[in-house]
Model the fold of this input.
Amino acid sequence: MSLIEVHVLGAPLVQNKGEIIHFQFQKAEALFYYLCIEKTATRSSLSKLFWPSLEETIAKKNLRNTIYSIKNTLPPDIILSNDKNTVSLNTDYDISIDIDLFKKEAAESYLLYNDGLMPGYYLKDSREFEAWLANASNNVLEIYLTKLYQKIISLQPNQLAELEMFAELYLKENTYDEKVYCYLMKIYYDNGLYYKGIQIYQKLSDILDKELAIAPDRKTTALYHDLLNAWSDTSATLELNTEIIPGREDIINSLINAYSEFLAGKPNRFIIIGEQGTGKSFLAEQFINQINLSGTLYLRPRCPYERTSFSESPWIATLSTLLKYMDEHTHHVYPSYLQTLRSAVTDRQVFFHADKNVKSYLEDYRYVAFRNHFIKTLSQLGHDIPIVIFIDNIHLMDSISLDLLSNIIRMKQSNLFILTTCLDAVSYDMVTFISSLTKENLLNQINLERFSKEAVISFVYNLLKLRNLERETIEQIYDENEGNTFFIIEFLNNYRYYNESSDISADNPGILNDSLLRLSSDARQLLDVISVFQDSVTLEMLLNIMNMKADSILYLLEDLKDYGLIVEEQRGAEVFFRFKYNNMRLFVYDMIPKQIKATLHNHAGAAYENIAVTKGIPAYYTQLIHHYTFADNMNKIKYYSLNQT
Done:
């Protein structure tokens, strides 16, 4: 142990033979710390540093008195001041200074950093000293960050705990350095921890957006997309993403051929019709995933899970996407059209008149202008780029939205491909919509039937690889579920989970209950929350609603994906989560007690409000009105109905 120990990293402290030293006055203390860091200085520079406002002769006199005070407090020979021009620390003395040890190349010297150089230290009436201390602190910080980064890149990819610790230390001091975020994301990718890499990117994106109003660079964003794709690829449990379900090959092939014709200049519009659970949405998704959408404008209006008014029209959200696309690309669209479309987004009162019936809407000059300009905008864009529109479950569209879709299908634009899905038992409006368009040869109808018994056998043996399943059991599956795709898949999910036990339910409600019994209480709670959302939900929304940390929610989302209950989608820079099957969402939602359901809707509305305020963006009126309606929160419904902007 040295006779004198000096600590300037962290709270400054001097000890002589283990006893804490108290200086007679602060400038003596500050001068000693300065010499411990810089080792030597001229008398002139010290005078200006500590007494900048005094004349030189008086300042040098004060310097002499201060040096004398230090020599009286510490051993006299610790300060060398015989030279009339310089003052130095006696480095031959038995003295240990933490900053000297810190600057050495020792592997663990970073541990000495301890919040930096003399944090919070203040010297009255000496801005020059403050400036020196700030500069010296920055130099120490640079050394610290260099040591940490060298430590980070020296670790092996499997040393995750240490790597995370050093990255956390680094980012605590340099929050905006993308290279460390990117390095962490790469390590997580290599280790298959995709959700952790996604979480790191989202943290970086939030910090840069809130504090610097910028986005991560392209390299980091590209790695983020790789993580998302990899995470999505590992989530399937039944291997249904890479193969076509037996019995559906002809339909997929016909759609792919039609898409090829579309790219060659022939417009095509399709509607897939079938009963609940026959796999309409899955089939459409499978087709969309197989085609190449690069070089096209891909629009996906998303219908709510319950049929609602035009106030929640899927076209409004799509319109925002369309306007953003036009802001980012150069296309010839008449300014008057764009002005009308922008007003539809910013002045939603044009459409939110609860007392208006369908006929009034269709005759309203504002709606007519909006509809015509929307269609003409698509038509003009279609001259420059192929447009692909996919709408799932159009039976949930309100009549006004359906009218708009009808007019879009009737567009004389060859560069337009439309794919929709619909239940076979639907409203009079829907029947009229389908029959009129098919009679005019403007809409191709694909009827999706249940699987035959032989198709179910092929499905089980060839695609799901359950060759040890007896034919009698397969026939029982068929008899109980009558070839319904959704229930067959859920039954076989349960069959695998319960280790091929014969105790699992074969009836449809029992199948769904068995699927939910596999979940932990936290996962089930999360599933209930997701079920109250009409379409999908972001991680940010879940964090606002649930009393859980992000990593906990991500773990639970992984479980729900592994069980095949939810899927993940990326729209622009955001990631969304939704139920894989609408049947399961409705089943889960219907099982929630009425009071709890209202509470969850109320929390969802509050979360939308909170995000809108935090990000300084307009309120999510469509979502707010929907959730507060189901929460029976009349004050909120009235407020947002009157204050939509």
